[in-house]
Specification:
Largest sheet: 6 strands, mixed
Helix content: under 10%
Radius of gyration: 42 Å
Number of domains: 4
CATH superfamily of the largest domain: Immunoglobulins
Number of strands: 23
Distance between the termini: 127 Å
Number of helices: 4
CATH class of the largest domain: Mainly Beta
CATH topology of the largest domain: Immunoglobulin-like
Strand order of the largest sheet: 5-14-13-8-9-10
Low-confidence stretches: 1-21, 257-330
Structural class: mainly beta
Shape: elongated
Strand content: 35-45%
């Protein structure tokens, strides 16, 4: 007696066959069931794959009911396998097998090529042991040109700066097969010349080519002690006609102007600029009388050489500290 049971796994049906043997001996019946498991099979998947050079490739091979059989990957018409199980049988270090269990009956034995090259173009075969029926073929084509190999450009920096802060912009240009020959800079539509009087020696442009992968040219534009005339739209353009723009705004908060009115660049009080009007005579000549620096009437010549309330000699006048000593000099 031959019986068949059917049950569903995933989207396919799996059949199990049972054979019933009946033995009659001295009016006694003996029954024995013989279990015959379903044969292993390779499930269908993509059979034609095209990738770019240096891309990662995964060739799928899903096996059902493998049991104790080995799964191998090999090149068609090649004697030696690439892999047996998860073990590599090739000297190509870019090739490996990714194994995973999908469910109780299905397993994944995918061939992985870490960085595909044109030499990997071929027909690959996934098979279960050496049975001719359990094989699946995948054709792989690797294009010579990498996918990410295209010209490009980007411009980065700080968009908002206070007056007299440094402007620092970086232009990153990538060529198709090698670095661009040059990068030009523009400000508000006009090409930037470091020798132009507008920049007054404040502007410098630096360029460098990255060693790896050797297709990138980096140009850096630096402007020291920015002025309000430096604001506007900056553009960098590579010799391959790729361009990128970046807006720069210079903010005048007024703090820098008041500081310059009080002090020279070396930090010495700027008496002449602020108090010139009160120390000139009718013929616009400076007077030799002491110049009063503060609204309290305390003058520089009166304070110099005197001692404060703690007995320390005051050798100079500092604007932001005079209020602390006013009571001692009245």
């Amino acid at each position: 007696m031959n019986t068949r049971m059917t049950y569903s796994v995933g989207t396919k049906s799996v059949y199990r066959h049972h054979v019933l043997f009946v033995v009659i001996d001295d009016c006694r019946h003996y029954r024995r069931y013989v279990y015959r498991p379903t044969a292993p099979e390779i499930l269908p998947d993509a059979t034609n794959i095209t990738v770019h050079s240096n891309e990662k490739v995964i060739l799928k091979c899903t096996v059902r009911n493998r049991r104790t059989k080995d799964v191998q990957w090999r090149l068609v018409r090649k004697r030696w396998p690439l892999t047996i199980g998860t073990e590599p049988w090739t000297t190509d270090k870019d090739i490996s097998v990714l194994y995973s269990v999908i469910n109780k009956t299905d397993e994944s034995w995918d061939l992985v090529i870490k960085r595909a090259k044109p030499r990997h173009t071929n027909t690959y075969e996934c098979q279960i042991s050496s049975t001719q029926s359990n094989r699946r073929y995948v054709y792989l084509r690797v294009l010579a040109q990498p996918k990410d190999k295209r010209p490009g450009i980007s411009l980065t920096g700080t968009a908002y700066l206070d007056l007299h802060q440094k402007v620092n912009l970086t232009c990153n240009a990538t060529g198709l097969f090698r670095a661009p020959d040059d990068i030009d800079w523009f400000h508000n539509g006009n090409i930037i010349d470091q020798k132009d009087q507008q920049w007054g020696g404040r502007l410098k442009i630096y360029k460098r080519i990255q060693d790896v992968p050797g297709r990138m040219l980096i140009s850096e534009l630096i402007i020291e002690k920015s002025t309000l005339d430096d604001r506007g739209m900056y553009v960098c353009r590579s010799s391959e006609n790729e361009a990128s723009s970046f807006p720069v705004s210079i903010l005048d908060t007024g703090k820098t102007t008041r500081y310059n009115d009080l002090y020279h660049r070396d930090g010495v009080p700027n008496k002449t600029k602020r108090y010139a009007e009160s120390n000139r005579d009718g013929q616009n000549r400076f007077l030799n009388k002491p110049m009063c620096l503060f609204s309290s009437g305390v003058c520089a010549q009166d304070i110099k050489g005197r001692e404060d309330i703690k007995g320390r000699v005051i050798n100079s006048v500092v604007c932001n500290k005079i209020n602390a000593f006013q009571k001692g000099f009245k």
